[in-house]
Design a protein that fits this description.
Layout: E1 7-10, E2 13-18, E3 23-27, H1 38-44, E4 49-53, H2 69-83, E5 88-94, H3 95-106, E6 111-119, H4 131-138, H5 142-148, H6 160-164, H7 171-183, H8 186-198, H9 202-205, H10 208-211, E7 218-223, H11 231-240, E8 244-250, H12 257-260, H13 262-274
Parallel strand pairs: 3-4, 3-5, 5-6, 6-7, 7-8
Antiparallel strand pairs: 1-2, 2-4
Protein name: Hydrolase
GO molecular function: monoacylglycerol lipase activity
Organism: Planobispora longispora
């Protein structure tokens, strides 16, 4: 599905808004964007209102000074308030899942339901497989490497994106949707490096007790072949959040399975939202 016809902006934030009815808010992680949710939205847009936010610095959203997890959680609250979204079904992936967890304990009243797909959990930030990328960012070496790949989409398979997808069908589309909005300018690249360094496990560790009291109906849907977030992370969520009703395993799915295997997620998501 091409989301361009449904793109909107409010202030410095870009987002996609399509459909009518109960609002489902989709949140991506670092280095991707609302494009990640296009296939899930295609399956739900005739049933409910689907809103996919571009986090600051991603997609059509501008960078902000504070790109920490707590600040990004407050971006979600600001966004909901600006759009008049009293309650949402929140669906998140990757770093967006970490943001969603903080948002859930700070603004529980905003949530009808919560869905977490492969994402950062508790002290697993950054995950071991992503630490080399964060180290490149800390040394200021990630941005020039990424910028050099903008005009060579075939190189994307050798990056974190190649690890996050089972198969990249259209590398050029991912470069344009994910990488160019960030690394198309030196300022964007530097801001992304700053963002990666600012993400800190202490912000998730700090909310463990609040997660243990979270009763919002929660679905955990997890790709089983993710090199970043293993099934033990899904089980930690199940054993910590009392609102978790089900853990669904997407056999062979990787980090970005909501994009390439939306058809495997949709039946579970529909059932969860209907409940």
């Amino acid at each position: 599905m091409n989301l361009s016809a449904y793109e909107k902006t409010i202030g410095d934030l870009g987002y996609v808004d399509v459909g009518e009815g109960a609002a489902t808010l989709f949140v991506h992680g670092v280095g991707t964007g609302s494009h990640l949710w296009r296939n899930v939205i295609a399956g739900l847009k005739d049933e409910r209102r689907c809103i996919a936010l571009d986090l600051p610095l991603h997609g059509r959203s501008r960078a902000r000074d504070d790109l920490s997890l707590p600040a990004l959680a407050e971006v979600l609250e600001e966004f909901c308030a600006r759009l008049g979204l009293d309650q949402v079904d929140l669906v998140a992936n990757d770093t967006g899942g970490a943001v969603a967890q903080i948002f859930a304990v700070r603004h529980t009243g905003r949530l009808r339901t919560l869905t977490l797909t492969n994402c950062d959990v508790h002290d697993d930030l950054p995950p071991e497989a992503f630490k080399p990328t964060v180290e490149l960012a800390a040394r200021g070496e990630l941005a020039p490497l990424a910028a050099a790949a903008l005009d060579r989409p075939e190189l994307i398979a050798a990056t974190v994106y190649g690890q996050g997808y089972q198969r990249i069908e259209d590398p050029g589309a991912l470069v344009e949707a994910y990488m160019r909005p960030i690394f198309g300018t030196p300022e964007g690249g530097r801001a992304f490096e700053r963002m990666l360094v600012a993400l800190d496990a202490k912000d998730l560790i700090a909310i463990a007790a609040e997660l243990a009291a979270l009763t919002v109906p929660t679905l955990v849907a997890w790709g089983t072949d993710d090199v970043f977030f293993g099934l033990d992370r899904a089980r930690w969520l199940r054993d910590t959040i009392p609102g978790v009703e089900e853990v669904v395993e997407i056999e062979g799915g990787r980090l970005f399975f909501p994009d390439e295997r939306a058809a495997d997620l949709l039946p579970h998501l529909r059932r969860h939202l209907a409940g």
